[in-house]
Amino acid sequence: MLAHRAPSCPLLKPIPPPALQIEALMMEMQSPDAGIKTQTQTVMVANIPHAVTGNDIMQWILQRLQITAEEALHLGDLFVKYGYIYPLQEPKNLTLRADGSLYRFQVSCTIYLAKKNIKRKGILEEYEKEHYNMLNQKINYKWDFVIMQAKEQYKAGKERKKEDRYALDCQERAYWLVNRTPIMYYQQAIMKTRVKSSVSLGGIVKYSEQFLSNDPILSGCLPSNPWISDDPEFWDLNAKLVEVPTRMRVERWAFNFSELIRDPKGRQNFQLFLKKEFSGENLGFWEACEDLKYGDQSKVKEKAEEIYKLFLAPGARRWINIDGKTMGITVKGLEHPHRYVLDAAQTHIYMLMKKDSYGRYLKSPIYKEMLAKAVVPQEGVKKSTGLFGRRHLRSSPSPIILRQQEEEAKAREAANTVDITQVMSKLDRRNQPQKEAPPK
Amino acid sequence: RRTDIFTRGWWVSNHQLFAVHQVAERVEALGQFVMKTRRTLKGHGNKVLCMDWCKDKRRIVSSSQDGKVIVWDSFTTNKEHAVTMPCTWVMACAYAPSGCAIACGGLDNKCSVYPLTFEKNENMAAKKKSVAMHTNYLSACSFTNSDMQILTASGDGTCALWDVESGQLLQSFHGHGADVLCLDLAPSETGNTFVSGGCDKKAMVWDMRSGQCVQSFETHDSDINSVRYYPSGDAFASGSDDATCRLYDLRADREVAIYSKESIIFGASSVDFSLSGRLLFAGYNDYTINVWDVLKGSRVSILFGHENRVSTLRVSPDGTAFCSGSWDHTLRIWA
């Protein structure tokens, strides 16, 4: 792990191996004959298998180790703090409560290793082999039990549902990643590029200063902050695709490319400009890539193919201009499409828009007109409290309704388009017989 | 000049700049600061554990210890939807980008998605989709840029990315040595990263494509309960049980501020930035909310009102207010 890089701190923190004595004791606690009796406990409506109470743990430790109640509680508490046992009801409270509070055993390091050995039929990494042998030596007398447990779990694991197996595998892998040698992280640390602090901090300060006037909590907003005045007009004026946006909003589009592209109204205006420059397909392509990345997993292949046909194939209707190398990588990747298959092309187009089109857009008549038309709201009237206190608060249409309306509008638009083409083809058909009429 | 910041040896003999307050010396100080509770949302019968804003800037979803998940129009304080989860301790909830669904989970080790409807015999529970499956409690969840993907964090020490429709695990993230308690997605259009914080005191930054941890920070002295990106995406803040909040600069790859006071001895449970990133709002286990000047490192205000721990805090999408949820069963909107 990358440690804090102050001059005096060590670059690496050594990761201590799990305490073998604790491992051995944990094994005993869970063994069917000498261990704590576990059972399925009901917590509210959920059934939690293999749970034990804090009191059970206390009693077992007391008996097994023949120590005082105070020592037993402290030891049990440490087991919880180090994660060998975890609490079910107050997950963030890592203490042992010697009452009916429920706990569960974390799958132990020993069992993980033994399972891995069984699964991989004796093939383990070097550091794993070392660890395995060490454990074997230390708890040799319990080794049969360990192997039996591991075999049980492995068998049960195979019969488990795919999702459960997946989740359990995740848990195991997580365990090993934490206890792995730190060499890998050191290598990663060397490869990363870092920016000088003063430069980076300067950027952070600059951002805050630039957006200060846009920060409603610090600078207020016009006509008023709805939460303070009870008047939602500020929200109406700044609706997603409002006819005429506010001046502050349009000015924000000039702060950086990200501000423009993130605002649906800004994107709409930018698209108008791109169309004039005959590079409208760039934004269209970028949006299609976003849809691929964040959309339904089952539609990935289908979408990737559609995008290829529309934007990338030779002679495509909305062909985008990317360099040969990127095109090559993309086409190759499309042989086995996945969510990120268009990343290279998308980044290229994004940079093109940002470094090239964006600058020209800000100087264009389209943007300047938007700025000139933009609304500057007047400061709102102070809220009137009226006879009964707070003014009547207007509710707003639910996003569910709005989405329905958007979809209906899209459907209507699509229907209209179809009508036009039908009309066109009718006209064509009327003209044709005259041309094709055979000479008499 | 009285300052409330720890300098902790950041001043190096060759005067290198490692702390944000050094670079912000010439920045104008903030004026008088007044924020009040503008709405109080009552309706949960038990500790409020989590909340999230809808993109429409006024609706919110909140979840509580008794399994209740409520969707409110917090402007009018009307409850619009409610569902009771089959488990207690619903520690995570999130609003979908479309505003037409919510996700939640907790002690059931799952993250479930509920489409929101207005059907007469509305039975939200019947339409529920079980998406994520962890082997320990769900501590945090967030939709990515669409309703189709969810990112989760769990007490099992991992984070995971899921396809909502099929429930398929798209990517898992391993590296934390203990429970992961929080996560936040980077705001950038170009990067695909997120940050997570855990009981191992580490904050880790992940590449969503490869599942690799690309940066890691371990300067807190206790559990990290909350992480939130600075609006530009170049930094993030954390809140921890060690009673401090900290700022980490991602490009310089280091901690660049600690927000703490001797009088603040209880853990910070939840943090979020104001729209410009100039203010950091932090909710604490001592029932208060402290407002920090991110650049100067000083506390500008302390807000009283909740009658128990503040467990969750989020600034609204347009920055006009923030919402806090508490173990006192209520949510408050502050502006």
UniProtKB/TrEMBL annotation, chain A:
Coiled coil: none annotated. Residues 32-107 form the DEP domain. GO terms for molecular function: GTPase activator activity. Residues 256-371 form the RGS domain. PROSITE patterns: DEP, RGS. Keywords: Membrane, Sensory transduction, Signal transduction inhibitor, Vision. Residues 426-440 have a biased composition (Basic and acidic residues). InterPro entries: DEP_dom, G-protein_gamma-like_dom, GGL_sf, RGS, RGS6/7/9/11, RGS6/7/9/11_DHEX_sf, RGS9_RGS, RGS_DHEX. SMART domains: DEP, G_gamma, GGL, RGS. CDD domains: DEP_RGS7-like (cd04450), GGL (cd00068), RGS_RGS9 (cd08739). One of its GO terms (cellular component) is neuron projection. This is Regulator of G-protein signaling 9. It comes from Zosterops lateralis melanops.
TrEMBL record, chain B:
It comes from the Eukaryota. Pfam families: WD40_Gbeta. The keyword Repeat applies. GO terms for biological process: signal transduction. InterPro entries: G-protein_beta_1-5 (IPR016346), WD40/YVTN_repeat-like_dom_sf (IPR015943), WD40_G-protein_beta-like (IPR001632), WD40_PAC1 (IPR020472), WD40_repeat_CS (IPR019775), WD40_repeat_dom_sf (IPR036322), WD40_rpt (IPR001680). Belongs to the WD repeat G protein beta family. This is G protein subunit beta 5. It comes from Zosterops lateralis melanops.
